[in-house]
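anyone seen this seq b4? input:
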Amino acid sequence: MSAAVRGARVRESRQQGGSQLVAEPEAVDNESGQMPAPSPRVGTKGPSAKTPFVGDLDVALRVTPDHVVSGMHVQVEMTVTNTSPHRLTNVTPSALRLVGTATSSATSEPRPAVQPVLEPGESASFSSTATVTGWEGQTYAFSGSASAEWDAIVARRAVSNRGTLLKLEGPGQPKYPDESRTVGASGAAAEDAAGTAAASTVAVSAAVGNPSATLQFVGVNLDGTLTGGVQFGGTLLQDLRILAGWDNVSGGHIQRLDLYLPDGALYQRFSTSFAHAAVETELQVNGSWITQHALFGSWRVELYLDDARTPIASEVFVLTPG
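predicted toks r here
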């Protein structure tokens, strides 16, 4: 009998006077014209599987914040879900790729680096950071995938939401004088901060492996446009968004944000529960006491984690009368 047709199954055909074996080609993938790859046997390591199986994992990506100034850090969260009826092991995120017109430094290694076990229906989160640079109006997003069973199973590549680079207000580079980072900074300290503060991120990091955070500011202008930086025209703002980016934290936590007036008095305190890498707090400016009582000058923000008495990050922004 001739050799069986490759990729075919054999059935027995019974006819009058006897029976014969008939080879039937199996169905092929309509798009690629190739045989569909069989699902690998879960629980065996990938080197035994010559062709990875695409499926059983769903990947979703989110980048925050979605409006930053060139040179700011962004957080990329990858969520991987086991959509199969089987337990999957060694779930590993891929490297991230930048998508858009902006540029990015190499992203940090995802944390955690691997999820040892993922039960059916369960999800795992992986966090990375990157620094985005470019011109106002340029865009950024990130794409990525994940694998399991030592690369025997791979997910289809996903793309995150898209962010946009903002205009940076304020001349020069920041010096952050000591006076501008203490309670009650005003007068000469406010003028110094107003003339020199232009960057929008300051990180106060503990030892490697300990939690750290960054603070960024985005102004929502009365005309609906957005402006990043640390110096804003107080009468031109509708609101001020305060973005806290967290690093080396996992699980549920409490973020406390204290805002101090130019004269050093506590203006407002925000407490927020969070379990992700970025938290946004909105400060009303237009129509609030800030504009009603002309509370212009150098403001200080202190960021705390849980019940800590020492701020994990501190930053100054300046509201000018213009």
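The domain at 168-320 is CATH 2.60.40.2550 (Immunoglobulin-like). The chain has two domains: 54-165, 168-320. kinda curious what u guys think
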